[in-house]
User: Which sequence fits this backbone?
């Protein structure tokens, strides 16, 4: 009797689950549920045998429904599966995939951030009759099964900081990390150090994390996922989703839905389809490496078969990462063997692989990781097809590198030695030596073509920076009218005559210092030395790699309006004679959003700066985040570009970021936010998510100055606030005083 | 203390008898009054929101030098009078445009009562007044009603005939209970600038406030 | 179309501009702010039926231009103060879609001569003497120290004891951001302090260093030019008698009078020299309006050009009082308006002669004994005598009490006397001051103080190196 009761309850649960996914009045599920409920009511009045019979017939009906449901599963229904409270969570994995674990940095709701779990865990492998234990660090999101304190797996900044802390531990101890991504997105708050800033720090660290890493994605919500997603191998659950934005969020934007209103279900379904968020889609796009199969309607918390498979897949992936650094041959034979087992993986492994690496292997690991991410998403640009051009570019690269190594490496060495000698001589008690050294010094000054100054005491700080001739007049200035400063009410600013404002005032209110937005051309003409700008890669064009319906038209419009192929301009230019490489995201082209083309141009600019030993400036006229129409191909630009930045900075460069107008989301949470030298122009807004998203996620209003540059400075995100009128001078000062030792002029 | 309970009762009674104030909305400057956006009898709202970040109800549009400006309500209430004949015309600065009948809020009643109960520092001249930067900083940090000023400390700076004169605190150390002006506001001579009280008077003032809060729910 | 001038100012200058307009047969429009309703600059035109507009502020360019358009004005006279030396305002007036005539120099001239350092550089290049020191802003303290050292040495050579330099913000003015240094070791810390002050206050951390000149007379040269390159001068003035805040209190034309007092140098030669130099710079920049070249003359008779005021001034009228164009006294505001409207002078320097001495007194409600503290209050009685040699310029009504507005300079009236020589002018000055009565009350109910006694005390000191 009790067994039957359990049987009945199980059937009810399955119908409810089905309804959760497919909607309440999907096909005949309502009637089936009604029948089951009726049976439950008069359960004790029906004879046992009849009951059993009834239940079996109900199950047959249910099976038919379930099969159909699985066959007709839409992307949005997969999202529903992923979010279902019955789905397995990280704690279930820790219980069932690992042999033992110790939670680190908190437990349950007594926790820095209960949405993020870090653990020391053991995972076991049987080879023959031997059992081997591997130690790993597990880091991931915990959605919980409905517990509110888990915050749905939405990590707060300090949750991601905790993750970073235990990545460091893994690195110190030299053990692999298994990342588990179960997040709808990071919690969009700007408490110290800010959601974006923390994710950027994580990405920057992970790009050169010196241990093997494997990530498993169940719910991959954009930036929140990337915070622990830059791994050597990325697995994904077959009923998981990985997306740049939630389908509801995309629908709200696409349908221009008012705040507080829900977008229509059809539009949400449409967006889910267009965004290419399923495991198959992502595998095809190359943003993940392999799919871990689940039951047709998704794995639930008690799906032990699935956990077994997951254990196998995690060990296999870790093995592969390790073996690839050791020998190509060993890796190939291992991979081949596993490939054969794929349909039906065995209980045991036939070999044991030790999960530690030598120094040489670590270098190899990092190199492979770099290559992997640098290659990701590139295919959609069609750059690799032209192999000849590629070849030419490559040889040019080598040539360029040799040239710059020679010019600024070798020469600089000898310069430095002379300089050091001079410094020693001009030290204490060396005054009487001046007569001796002066001629030599003069010769040295001539050598380095620096004009000899009349007084040696005077610092050379001012030379080089000359005022620019007035050439450029903003088109905004050509109108006889006045405008009101937004601070007029509080600061009593008089109305400003537009030709003054956009002319001499550089768009700055002379009374309160408020900065009105200016077009990007103004910066091109007012920061850099006259006629020094040389653009490159202008042909790399934004496309529609997902075939997002209706987007082609918008893209064509943006190209026509701006006369540009992407939202980023990359060029070489000079400030006060110092040559530098610049990447500029512009508002005019799709709000400065970043997709594959923008990412690729950024990386190439970064590499050019590295090879030519130039400083690298990212000037953000505006960025609205990752371009949602490119889906995860866009998201993947976060780790990709951060990787390039990390390699540039490690090579001794100077990476400066200057924010203007509005900078939000993905780019700030990765390749912009990871710069040690970030500055904002006054009146800039910087953050992770806009006010509306914050209100909708946290349910709380935010003060109007929440994203102000002042607050970004207060929490340490940026290092200073610059006045637009002084931008050129400030940049020049920064170029002279900041950055690593490998810059060509240092 | 300046007032006894009987007088306070009288005051509260007078508020009850006439709980309204008329706000005359004037043009901030010259220009063409293009269009009225409210009519007599309309309800309007002043700035709202936790940080007063939501703007008040648009009242009319004043255009000067090709800059159409929406003039908004600074106080809530009912539009009680509109000078319709101004519509479409060029108006001078400070021209009365409309009137808002405003119901006193609890906060305003408290402010008016405090003006009558606290030790008031008045404006010595008709001039612009600025809170002394040190005091402003302290008040921002600790809040109104918390900061104590000692004799000789600077309360405000008076900008008068192109000169800046400090206004110093005289008398025993006192709590700055209320500041009655905003930064750079032009204050008529004799109008209150600060409401101060002695440390031992504070409980009395606070009791008074809670009494108003009780009798005059927000 | 008939020309109509918008008078964008208040007080006595607004009245003088009205008078000039009437003399030239021009229509005019007046603006005022609340608090000035009682002023004669509003009441007189109102009585004549002239248009008077209430505006938000005399400093609100938008209100002034909006009124100008509404009242169909063709020109704007800025008077002195407010917008008179704001090249952006002047530029906007002539560049807007409905351009107006700006009664003053071309905006480029205002811009180039409005910057003290730029004037210094221009003058230096033209061989006009300027106060020894830097002519470009310094940003580097090592350079500053080197420059200061040079200036100390120069002063020692000149026998100036003790040598002193002034360190000041390049963008500063009006006595803000200036410090005196008499010790070379102090240069660096003071330089740093001024630089950070300048950065904070003016947004530009440029600093200049120059010799600190003591014991000098403040002289002025009155220039008039026009767009045809015609250029004349109306002699010199002496404005040495000033309050401690460096506000002028008594002005005399001409600048020196060797018949009145002895000078340790050839006074006429110095006057000729500064006139010559002033004309040279005016001609170089193509000066096209009335303007004043301000000079320092030391006890040793060395002149240094200080700055140029590209506007009509309070004290212009004393120069007019001693000048005769073909025997007739000119009105410099009329000349300024004529120049702005593109008229020719109709005379040359040869037609201008000089006659007698004129003295101007600024009557102000102020507490001279307490740092010239300005006073506010109500004037109940205001009387002055009437003579044919006396002119009183005032916006204060005599027939009703007048409340002094607190937002502006506290000038109440200007008394301008003329005498056939300085001795007579001085005697008449005393006569004027004796006969003038100003009575009133401060807000506290105390009697209102004025500077009349101070002016009497200072009158015997005019034109003299004491």
Assistant:
């Amino acid at each position: 009797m009790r067994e039957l009761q359990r049987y009945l309850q199980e059937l009810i649960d399955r119908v409810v689950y089905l309804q959760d996914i497919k909607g309440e009045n999907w096909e005949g599920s309502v009637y089936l549920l009604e029948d089951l409920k009726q049976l439950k009511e008069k359960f004790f009045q029906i004879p046992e045998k009849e009951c059993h019979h009834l239940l079996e017939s109900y199950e047959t009906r249910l099976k038919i429904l379930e099969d159909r449901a699985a066959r007709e599963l839409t992307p949005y229904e997969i999202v529903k599966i992923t979010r279902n409270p019955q789905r397995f969570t990280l704690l279930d994995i820790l219980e069932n995939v690992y042999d033992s674990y110790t939670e680190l940095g908190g437990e349950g709701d007594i926790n820095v951030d209960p949405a993020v779990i870090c653990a020391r865990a053991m995972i076991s492998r049987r080879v023959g009759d031997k059992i081997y234990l591997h130690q790993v660090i597990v880091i991931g999101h915990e959605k919980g099964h409905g517990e509110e304190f888990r915050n749905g797996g939405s990590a707060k900044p300090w949750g991601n900081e905790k993750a970073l802390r235990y990545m460091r531990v893994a690195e110190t101890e030299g053990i692999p990390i298994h990342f588990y991504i179960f997040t709808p997105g990071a919690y969009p708050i700007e408490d110290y150090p800010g959601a974006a800033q923390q994710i950027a720090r994580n990405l920057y660290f992970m790009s050169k994390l010196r241990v093997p890493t494997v990530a498993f994605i169940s719910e991959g919500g954009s930036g929140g996922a990337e915070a622990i997603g830059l791994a050597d191998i990325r697995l994904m659950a077959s009923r998981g989703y990985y997306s740049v934005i939630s389908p509801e969020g995309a629908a709200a934007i696409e349908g221009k839905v008012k705040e507080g209103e829900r977008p229509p279900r059809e539009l949400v379904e449409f967006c889910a389809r267009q965004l290419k968020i399923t495991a198959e889609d992502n595998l095809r796009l190359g943003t993940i490496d392999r799919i871990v199969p689940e039951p047709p309607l998704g794995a639930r918390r008690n799906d032990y078969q699935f956990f077994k498979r997951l254990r196998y897949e995690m060990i296999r992936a870790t093995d592969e990462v390790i073996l690839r650094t050791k020998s190509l041959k060993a890796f190939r034979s291992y991979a081949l063997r596993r490939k054969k087992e794929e349909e039906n993986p065995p209980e045991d492994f036939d070999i044991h692989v030790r999960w530690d690496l030598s120094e040489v292997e670590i270098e190899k690991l990092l190199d492979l990781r770099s290559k992997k991410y640098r290659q990701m998403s590139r295919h959609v640009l069609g750059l690799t097809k032209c192999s000849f051009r590629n070849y030419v570019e490559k040889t040019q690269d080598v040539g360029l590198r040799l040239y710059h190594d020679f010019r600024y490496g070798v020469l600089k060495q000898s310069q430095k030695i002379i300089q050091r000698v001079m410094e020693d001589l001009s030290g204490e008690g060396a005054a009487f030596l001046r007569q001796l050294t002066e001629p030599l010094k003069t010769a040295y000054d001539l050598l380095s073509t620096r004009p000899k100054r009349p007084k040696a005491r005077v610092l050379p700080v001012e030379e080089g920076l000359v005022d620019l001739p007035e050439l450029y007049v903003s088109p905004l200035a050509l109108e006889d009218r006045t405008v009101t400063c937004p601070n007029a009410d509080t600061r009593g600013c008089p109305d400003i005559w537009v030709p003054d404002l956009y002319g001499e005032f550089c768009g700055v209110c002379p009374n309160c210092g408020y900065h009105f937005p200016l077009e990007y051309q103004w910066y091109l003409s007012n920061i850099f030395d006259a006629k020094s700008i040389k653009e490159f890669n202008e042909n790399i064009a934004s496309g529609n790699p997902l075939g997002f319906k209706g987007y082609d038209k918008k893209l064509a419009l943006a190209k026509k309006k701006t006369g540009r192929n992407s939202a980023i301009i990359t060029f070489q230019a000079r400030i006060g004679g110092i040559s530098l490489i610049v990447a500029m995201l512009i508002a005019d082209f799709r709000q400065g959003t970043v997709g594959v083309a923008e990412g690729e141009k950024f990386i190439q600019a970064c590499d050019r700066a590295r090879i030519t030993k130039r400083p690298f400036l990212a000037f953000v006229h505006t960025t609205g985040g990752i371009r949602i129409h490119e889906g995860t191909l866009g998201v993947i630009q976060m780790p990709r570009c951060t990787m390039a930045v990390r390699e540039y900075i490690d090579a001794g460069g100077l990476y400066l970021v200057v924010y203007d107008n509005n900078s939000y989301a993905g780019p700030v949470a990765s390749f912009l936010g990871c710069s040690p030298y970030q500055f904002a122009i006054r009146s800039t807004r910087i953050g992770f998510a806009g006010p509306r998203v914050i209100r909708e996620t946290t349910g709380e209003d935010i003060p109007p100055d929440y994203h102000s540059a002042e607050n970004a400075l207060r929490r340490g995100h940026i290092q200073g606030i610059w006045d637009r009128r002084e931008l050129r001078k400030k940049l020049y000062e920064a170029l002279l005083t900041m950055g690593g030792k490998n810059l060509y002029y240092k | 203390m300046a007032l006894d309970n009987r007088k306070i009762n009288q005051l509260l009674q007078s508020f009850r008898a006439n709980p309204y104030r008329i706000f005359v909305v004037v043009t901030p400057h010259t220009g063409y009054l293009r269009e009225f956006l409210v009519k007599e009898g309309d309800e309007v709202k002043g700035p709202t929101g936790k940080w007063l970040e939501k703007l008040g109800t648009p009242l009319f549009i004043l255009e000067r030098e090709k800059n159409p400006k929406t003039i908004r309500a600074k106080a809530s209430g009912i539009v009680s009078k509109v000078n319709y004949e101004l519509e479409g015309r060029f108006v001078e600065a400070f021209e009365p445009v409309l009137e808002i009948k405003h119901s006193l809020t609890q906060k305003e009643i408290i402010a008016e009562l405090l003006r009558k109960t606290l030790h008031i520092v008045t404006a010595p001249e008709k001039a612009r007044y600025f809170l002394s930067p040190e005091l402003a900083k302290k008040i921002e940090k600790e809040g109104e009603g918390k900061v104590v000023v000692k004799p000789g400390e600077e309360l405000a700076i008076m900008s008068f005939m192109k000169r800046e004169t400090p206004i110093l605190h005289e008398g025993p150390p006192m709590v700055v209970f209320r500041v009655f002006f905003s930064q750079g506001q032009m204050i008529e001579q004799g109008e209150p600038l600060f409401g101060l009280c002695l440390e031992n008077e504070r409980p009395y003032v606070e009791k008074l406030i809670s009494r108003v809060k009780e009798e005059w729910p927000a | 179309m008939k020309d109509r001038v918008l008078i964008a100012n208040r007080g006595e200058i607004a009245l003088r501009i009205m008078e000039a307009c009437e003399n030239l047969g021009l229509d005019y429009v007046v603006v005022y702010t609340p608090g000035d309703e009682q002023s004669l600059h509003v009441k007189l035109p109102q009585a004549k039926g002239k248009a008077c507009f209430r505006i938000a502020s005399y400093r609100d360019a938008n209100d002034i231009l909006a009124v100008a358009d509404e009242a169909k004005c063709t020109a704007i006279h800025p008077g002195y103060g407010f917008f008179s030396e704001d090249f952006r305002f002047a530029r906007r007036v002539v560049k807007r879609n409905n351009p107006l005539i700006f009664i003053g120099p071309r905006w480029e001239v205002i811009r180039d001569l409005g910057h003290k350092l730029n004037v210094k550089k221009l003058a230096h290049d033209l061989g006009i003497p300027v106060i020894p020191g830097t002519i470009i802003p310094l940003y580097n303290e090592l350079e500053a120290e080197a420059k200061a050292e040079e200036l100390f040495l120069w002063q020692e050579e000149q026998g100036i004891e003790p040598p002193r330099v002034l360190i000041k913000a390049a963008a500063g003015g009006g006595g803000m951001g200036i410090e005196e240094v008499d010790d070379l070791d102090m240069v660096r810390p003071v330089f740093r302090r001024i630089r950070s002050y300048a950065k904070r206050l003016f947004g530009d951390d440029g600093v200049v260093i120059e010799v600190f000149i003591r014991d000098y007379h403040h002289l002025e040269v009155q220039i008039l030019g026009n767009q045809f390159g015609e250029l004349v001068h109306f002699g010199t003035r002496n404005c040495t008698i000033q309050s401690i805040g460096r506000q002028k209190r008594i002005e005399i034309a001409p600048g020196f009078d060797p018949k009145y007092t002895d000078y340790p140098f050839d006074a006429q030669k110095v006057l000729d020299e500064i006139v010559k130099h002033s004309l040279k710079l005016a001609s170089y920049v193509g000066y096209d309006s009335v303007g004043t070249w301000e000079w320092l003359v030391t006890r040793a008779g060395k002149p240094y050009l200080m700055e140029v005021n590209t506007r009509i001034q309070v004290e212009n009228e004393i120069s007019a009082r001693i000048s005769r164009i073909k025997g007739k006294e000119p009105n410099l505001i009329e000349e300024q308006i004529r120049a702005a409207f593109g008229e020719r002078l109709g005379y040359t320097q040869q037609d201008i002669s000089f006659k007698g001495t004129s003295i101007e007194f600024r009557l102000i409600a102020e507490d001279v004994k307490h740092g010239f503290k300005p006073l506010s209050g109500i004037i109940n009685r205001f009387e002055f005598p009437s003579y044919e040699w006396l002119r009183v310029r005032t916006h204060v009504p005599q027939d009703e009490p007048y409340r002094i507005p607190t937002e502006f300079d506290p000038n109440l009236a200007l008394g301008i006397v003329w005498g056939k020589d300085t001795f007579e002018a001085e005697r008449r000055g005393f006569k004027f001051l004796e006969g003038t009565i100003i009575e009133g009350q401060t807000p506290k109910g105390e009697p209102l103080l004025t500077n009349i006694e101070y002016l009497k005390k200072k009158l015997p000191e005019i034109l003299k190196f004491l």
The first strand of chain A starts at residue 100 and ends at 104. Residues 387-425 of chain A form the longest helix (39 residues).
